[in-house]
Amino acid sequence: MKDYEIYTLPNGIRVVHKQVVHTKIVHCGFVLDVGSRDENLANQGIAHFWEHMAFKGTTKRKAFHIMNRLEANGGELNAYTTKEKIAFYASVLESHFEKAFDLLTDITFDSTFPEKQIDKERLVILEEMAMYKDSPDDDLQDEFDNVIYGDHPLGMNILGIKNTVNKFQKKDFVEFINNNLDTERIVFSIVGNISISKVKRLSDKYLGGIPQITKIRNRKPFDLYLPQTKQIEKNIAQSLCAMGRPAYANNHEKRIPFFMLVNLLGGPGMNSRLNLALREKHGYVYAVDANYSSFSDTGLFSIIFGTEPKQLKKSIEVIKKELKKLMNLPLGNMQMHTAKEQLKGQLAIAEENNASLMLAIAKSLIDRNRIDSLEDIFKQIDSVSPKILLDVANEMFDDNSFSYLTYTPH
Prior knowledge:
Elements: E1 5-8, E2 14-19, E3 25-32, H1 46-53, H2 63-71, E4 76-81, E5 86-93, H3 97-109, H4 115-133, H5 136-149, H6 162-165, H7 170-180, E6 186-192, H8 196-207, E7 229-234, E8 239-247, H9 255-266, H10 273-281, E9 285-294, E10 299-307, H11 312-328, H12 333-351, H13 354-368, H14 374-382, H15 386-396, E11 403-409
Parallel strand pairs: 2-6, 7-11
Antiparallel strand pairs: 1-2, 3-5, 3-6, 4-5, 8-10, 8-11, 9-10
Helix pairs in contact: 3-8, 9-15, 10-11, 11-15, 12-14
């Protein structure tokens, strides 16, 4: 049996399917190649607002019927918005798969954006924005995006700003969708015990009648980065710090080696270099994370931690020291073996989560026009040499290229 089956409809929509026979749950959903970076200063937050409004009424259903359709049968219906993607997805018993397919198609393509519901949901989103502002960790990440990307759309908050959110009307959603929706950049993804013949039959039934829509991609490229340091006083007890820089794009040849480096530096393992240095050796932090996110034309590398104000500078110096080690000292054979095995194990564990896998394969198909098997990824990891890691470290960890954002207590 193939790892994945890909079925392309005449309108350009692709359906990707992985059959998993040992489960009774089907995870499925649409991933659209549209996100907050497709906005401008005048409509900041509309992609995320659209995600909310998709559940508030369609040509066939009112909001209550949408919410009740799957959840009354024990299923889950959800959505999210990122810088470059919007996803509408569900998890249901396999006996309710067709209901999920029908409902997801309905909310993705036939939302009506009722004016009364827009006014209600506007208040919900304003509360969501206030909630994030009250969470310094979340607010720090959003603000750091702006430090790195500035006035570029990648630097805008996904939730938008109060001024724009307060103004959106039905015509704004219709205009945004008409300007950005392209059927060739839409993937419907399925992971579960469903046959490919059933997948094709239901795809033809629910997606075959959707007209082909073609739009010329007009995303503003990110090509100007100037490192900066920014400090903001907050009503908090700890000092919070984000430090980092732009990184490699989705299809860059150094993406896998850099991902290895970031995982070694501050991945989820308690044996990460930053955790050992900052927490276990000095006791400066409770947690420290190194993250790497890749986009279509750029990426973002960040290190985030919180500490007592008097230990902020010391913590940054410890981090710089660990970065210098990776720039100056090539990994030995045992260190390389351990780093590779740890990363491969983490990826294998992640693939056990079928809901995450369903979304990941859709994004991979959109971003890279292919889906690598675990074996393919393992081969890429195994091909990485100490010299490659050293070269990537020197390219990405130069302190002169870093930006810094700190939240300090009043």
